[in-house]
Amino acid sequence: MPRKTIKNASSTRAHFLYGIISYMLKNIMKTFFATLLCILLIIGGFFALSKLKPDNTQAASIIATNFIGYDLTRAITGNSGSVELLLKPGSDMHSFEPTPQDIIDISNADLFIYNGGESEKWVDRLLADNNIPREKTLRLMDFVNLKTEELTEGMESDETEDDSPEYDEHIWTSLKNTVKLLAAIRQKLSEKDPENSEKYQTNADQYAAEIIKLDQSFRDLATNNKTLIFADRFPFRYFVDEYGFEYFAAFPGCSEQTEASSGTVAFLVDKVKSENLKTIFKTEFTSDKLARTISEATGAEVKELNAAHNISPSDFESGITFVDIMKNNLKILTEFFNS
Ligand SMILES: [Zn+2]
To answer: Ligand 1 centroid to 1 CA: how many Å?
Structure first.
């Protein structure tokens, strides 16, 4: 009897131990499966993110040197985050030099869009030094008929006699050219990203329609025969040729000169007086010293026509477009021709 009791007691203890062990095992298994599930979820999450990442990277790795390349690309992709403007807003395109970080960014970009004129002589060297293949670049000056800078009567020349004529780089100021540039960028983007080519075509068509409408408005202005006097540099060669405007200016293209000779000042003052002009012009981001001199001598008001080389930091923040800038130029010129 006592033996039985002992036997019974040991069997109860074994049962008890078995219960504890199986309880612990169950818990360990539960923890193990929960941990496994967490690990799988984390791995799955990483996979999902890495699948998304190429799209984002691709969209963010277009670099445009100047405002026109930036603006047209942004209009085509329909996304302001898809393209980076190399020029800092408010800085001068003509004195730009890339920083070491710019060079790294350009080397890593999927597409590098540049204008290719006098102000961007650094580009060819950069592309060669860093072995950047041509198919990853787009030079906008390849897509329009180039004009040389013109030396008009009374203008200061900054060239020696040996200099070959310089191509004017402000190709986008003719809106006919702008449409060609838009088409060239759209074509390149579609080749690089065929999945979105339909969207690019739709967006480009919409922007082209706005540009073509403006082009017609400038053409309609040209029936008025009044001379534009620029007491400044002259980045509007393509513009005046396209729309048939007469002009005189102090310096050709974006000459680095800012000091006009007394002969140039006298010539421009005389033109303003003899044509009885109430307005003279300057361009964006330049000194208004010469314009003020001529304004004081003639009583003509100084207005700014924007050649859209670059935009100010506040305009950059507000997302101003090339079409907005040209609409404002149209408004100023309409007032001028109707005054
Ligand atoms: Zn310029």
So the answer is: 114
